[in-house]
Amino acid sequence: MATAPVNANVGNSTSDGGRVYGGQERDQRKSERRGQLIEAGLDLLGSADGDHALTVRGVCKQAGLATRYFYESFTDRDALTVAVYDHVVDRIATSTLDAVSNAGPGERDIVRAGVRNIVREVAEDPRQGRLMFSVAQSSAVLAQRRLDSSRLFAGLVTKQTVGYYEVAESPRLDLAAHFMVGGLAQTLTAWLNGTVTLPEEELVDTCTELLLSMAIHTR
Question: Which stretches of sequence are listed as region Disordered (predicted)?
Answer without folding.
Answer: 1-33
